[in-house]
């Protein structure tokens, strides 16, 4: 087991706690950078989707995992970013400028949703965001001069300084750089006073308010930043699919994003990308498993929904910390072998004194 003795304040603000993390993250970055030459085109496309969903997962993780706000309509922000990017890209705007506008418009919509949501919490906030998702999907379907309605709209390839990004390798590089910047930005945000205020609101709103944290301001800011990250993911999503229709941003997409953060691990940046890997890999595993199942089960139309629901129930009951929480336990088991003892990770429920006032 590794013990870290801190001898300076600079060690507290480093992103990497020790040299081992630098080595493993550097190895991961090297693999991701070499992926266009190591992976076939199909798996490179799947990895691109992992990066896109990971950025969207970072946004929802900030809102739900770090601020404690519940959202079942996050696909609406993804759709706002996607359609904004599509309209501006088709109008000939440069890719970075169009993506910045997509993020800003999604953030503005997030503020509009966050202000009324200040009066509700818990399941009622989830219902409010769910209703917002239905409204946005209907707007996409009815606003035909801009979105193309249910007929959909094509999306032109992104352009940057006169260079058209039309190959899968170049677009993967754009998604990788964007995901890295989003991750580093979120990590630095969480270390700032704003990030600590988000975590304080998640743990106990009464305690946070007693420390002088303005609940309305920080909740609205959390909605705006979360929506902005979803808008960036939506901009990349539009160019990856090259065709948009309103049914791509339905309640099912919102549930997929919620599955992403819950199964990946609420309250961890790693969980956003682990959940994205699960979300992309699970349909592939289900398709492979159909060949081994009886026809009555393998060809059933609701097989994927049953598998997703079963996996979610299993994680909620047996591993609430998600895939990242399971990895932490496995890592601790390996570090403490052979001194690991049974029941070390037994869940215990503890309450703060202020929680009884909720």
Kindly summarize this structure in a few lines.
The chain is mainly α and 358 residues long. Helices cover 68% and strands 2% of the residues. It has a single domain (43-341), classed as ABC transporter involved in vitamin B12 uptake, BtuC (Orthogonal Bundle), CATH 1.10.3470.
Walk me through what this model shows.
- The longest helix is centred in the middle third of the chain and has 27 residues, at 215-241.
- The protein starts with 18 loop residues before the first helix and ends in a 22-residue tail after the last helix.
- Residues 350-358 have low confidence and may be disordered.
- The chain has helices at residues 19-38, 41-66, 75-90, 95-114, 123-142, 144-147, 168-191, 193-203, 205-210, 215-241, 251-264, 269-289, 295-298, 303-318, 322-336, and strands at residues 153-154, 159-160, 163-164, 243-244.
- Strand 2 and strand 3 (163-164) form a beta hairpin.
- Helix 2 crosses helix 8 (193-203).
- The strands form two sheets. A two-stranded antiparallel ribbon has the order 1-4. A two-stranded antiparallel ribbon has the order 2-3.
- It has one domain (43-341): ABC transporter involved in vitamin B12 uptake, BtuC, CATH 1.10.3470.
- It is built from 15 helices and four strands.
- The chain has 358 residues and is an all-alpha fold.
Task: Record keyword descriptors for this entry.
ABC transporter involved in vitamin B12 uptake, BtuC; two-stranded antiparallel sheet; globular; 2% strand; 358 residues; mainly alpha
